[in-house]
């Protein structure tokens, strides 16, 4: 079989890819050796910025198959008939670690889905948890600073985490999940996925419903203890990548049951809690899970960088029949992701094969850095025009959404119950799970100033007195263990104020 001839990026054939061009066998190199210059220059540009959060991840392609009719709630093409299949990409991730971080860390797992539908891409960018740490996006960058490295020590800071959490009681629900057994999954296949936010569905009659998305693992939830994870990381920093990649290569395709919860539009007003608050779930007893379909991952990427690192998911990618909600966090994310992609990947990131919709794209955007769209030749390069350029279609208009209220910086903590739902979660745990929760928290609090620990214990007490008491006991137990072994140092920080 004849092999293709190697070339430069300009297509010029290469005669020798083993030896640089030098003045004599031992001499210095010649500037005219463009082949060497091109190779080194390309190497200098091999890395793109890593994601500011969720930098470490793994992904695979697959299929969503619809098994139940939900067309009474939505006209979205992806749900149009039982048996309908839509190709998708799912990227899992950890949140805090950098691109080279170990997989087996206690952290939330990202669950970013891109469905290549017949009416454009639908991205559902969620997590393996149904809630989040903050409910106002103004606090998101502050929260993320506490998860990343301390600017002076260049280390992760338990003090910063517990300081922020203890001053932000709305975080308690997510902190309880993070510190529970489910905060350290054995691998991505063994996690559930949640859209987390409330989104909206719009049906063919123009009626709006509020909706939450759930993916329940068919592999079963499987988790590790901190001690087990230490053993894994000592031998393998890519444990989740390996598990996912090898399972798919073996033909053991992971599957999830796709379900939804639905609320009538007008019921949002009557709900006892704010159904657009990302720190709350909708109780299953009030909003039962409705079967929709099966998600299966069945194809590994051919090239990790091109198809996973350059993949760009954004909650702003919605399709007719699926839309946003007043959730403040979702509203901010609608802006934030595409902005991140233009910086991280480039202006035309959606023209890259992995991000490109399978349906036709017609915009009037022009030019820009690295525009590699197919050249267009038309007099219709502005809108409106008289030259048959693409035009709007009012059939896609959404029904109007009633909104009222005085514009202000409303205190999101006023009258908000941050304790009942975390307490409910605590109360449904088995005794073994509760013990794990207590000891995980006690371990995570090592080195944190006592005043911050006391403030956080107050939150556990309010969720359930047994929760606070259990953590106190675990802290005492661990302090005893530490005196008998090596003493744990307080983190090198300035003393907290107040
Ligand atoms: P249910 O008893 O109907 O549901 C309990 C839910 O908790 C199940 O979805 C279960 O997931 C999940 N769960 C069990 N252990 C953990 C854990 N350690 N971390 C996270 N989730 C866990 O109760 P409710 O609907 O009334 O909710 C009670 C509490 O359950 C909530 O306050 C919330 O913390 C948690 N939860 C609720 C969800 C919801 O959408 N209502 C979704 C996920 C969690 P599984 O079935 O996979 O075992
Ligand atoms: C990644 C912002 C909240 C899930 C990202 C990225 C940004 C970002 C900028 C990097 C995107 C990229 O470079 O491709 C925000 C902001 C938030 C927020 C501003 C709140 C206001 C959330 C929430 C969830 C979530 C609530 C889950 C429910 C994810 C996931 C990724 C991610 C899964 C990784 C996507 C991928 O795999 O490429 N976020 N985020 N984020 N975020 Fe958020």
TrEMBL record:
> What are the record's GO terms for cellular component?
cytoplasm
GO process terms (BP): hydrogen peroxide catabolic process; response to hydrogen peroxide
Q: Where does heme bind?
A: 337
Enumerate the SUPFAM superfamilies for this protein.
Answer: Heme-dependent catalase-like (SSF56634)
Give the catalysed reaction(s), semicolon-separated. Answer: 2 H2O2 = O2 + 2 H2O
Q: Where does the record place the catalytic residues?
A: 54, 127
Sorted keywords for this record are: Heme, Hydrogen peroxide, Iron, Metal-binding, Oxidoreductase, Peroxidase
Q: Into which EC class is this enzyme placed?
A: oxidoreductase
Residue intervals of the Catalase core domain = 7-391
Keyword Iron assigned to the entry: answer is yes
Q: Name one GO molecular function term.
A: catalase activity
List its EC numbers. 1.11.1.6
Cross-referenced Gene3D superfamilies, in alphabetical order? Catalase core domain
Annotated region Disordered: the residues are 1-25
Q: Could you say which protein family the record assigns here?
A: Belongs to the catalase family.
Q: Which protein is depicted?
A: catalase
């Amino acid at each position: 079989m004849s092999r293709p001839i190697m070339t430069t990026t300009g297509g010029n054939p290469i005669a020798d890819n083993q030896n640089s061009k030098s003045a004599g066998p031992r001499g210095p190199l010649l500037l005219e050796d463009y082949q060497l210059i091109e190779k080194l220059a390309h190497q200098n540009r091999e890395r793109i910025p890593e994601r500011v959060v969720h930098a470490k991840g793994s992904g695979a392609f697959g299929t969503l198959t619809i098994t139940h009719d939900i067309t009474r709630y939505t006209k979205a093409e992806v749900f149009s008939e039982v048996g309908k299949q839509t190709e998708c990409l799912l990227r899992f991730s950890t949140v805090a670690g950098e691109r080279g971080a170990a997989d087996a860390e206690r952290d939330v797992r990202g669950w970013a889905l891109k469905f290549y539908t017949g009416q454009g891409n639908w991205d559902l960018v969620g997590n393996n948890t149904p809630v989040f740490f903050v409910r106002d996006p103004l606090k998101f960058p502050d929260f993320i600073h506490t998860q990343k490295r301390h600017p002076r020590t260049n280390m992760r800071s338990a003090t910063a985490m517990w300081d922020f959490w203890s001053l932000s009681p709305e975080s308690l629900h997510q902190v309880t999940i993070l510190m529970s057994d489910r905060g350290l999954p054995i691998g991505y296949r063994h996690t559930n996925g949640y859209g987390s936010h409330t989104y909206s569905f719009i049906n063919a009659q123009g009626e709006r419903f509020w909706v939450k998305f759930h993916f329940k693992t068919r592999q079963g939830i499987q988790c590790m203890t901190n001690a087990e994870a230490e053993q894994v990381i000592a031998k393998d920093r890519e444990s989740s990548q390996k598990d996912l990649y090898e399972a798919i290569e073996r033909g053991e395709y992971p599957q999830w049951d796709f379900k939804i919860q639905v609320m009538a539009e007008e019921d949002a007003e009557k709900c006892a809690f704010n159904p657009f608050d990302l720190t709350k779930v909708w109780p299953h007893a009030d909003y039962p899970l409705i079967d929709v379909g099966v998600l299966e991952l069945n194809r590994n990427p051919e090239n990790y960088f091109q198809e996973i690192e350059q993949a760009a998911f954004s909650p702003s990618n919605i399709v007719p029949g699926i839309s946003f909600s007043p959730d403040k966090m979702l509203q901010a994310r609608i802006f934030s992701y595409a902005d991140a992609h233009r910086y991280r990947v480039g202006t035309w990131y959606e023209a890259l094969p992995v991000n490109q919709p399978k349906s036709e794209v017609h915009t009037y955007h022009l030019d820009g850095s690295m525009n590699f769209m197919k050249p267009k030749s038309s007099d219709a390069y502005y809108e409106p025009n008289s030259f048959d350029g693409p035009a709007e279609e009012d059939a896609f208009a959404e029904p109007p959404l009633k909104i009222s209220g005085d514009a202000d910086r409303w205190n999101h903590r006023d009258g908000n119950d941050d304790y009942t739902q975390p307490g409910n979660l605590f109360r449904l745990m088995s005794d073994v799970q509760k013990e794990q929760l207590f000891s995980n928290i006690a371990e995570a609090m090592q080195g944190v100033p006592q005043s911050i620990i006391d403030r956080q214990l107050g939150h556990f007490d309010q969720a359930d007195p047994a929760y606070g008491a259990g953590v106190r006991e675990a802290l005492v137990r661990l302090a005893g263990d530490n005196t008998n072994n090596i003493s744990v140092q307080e983190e090198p920080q300035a003393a907290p104020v107040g």
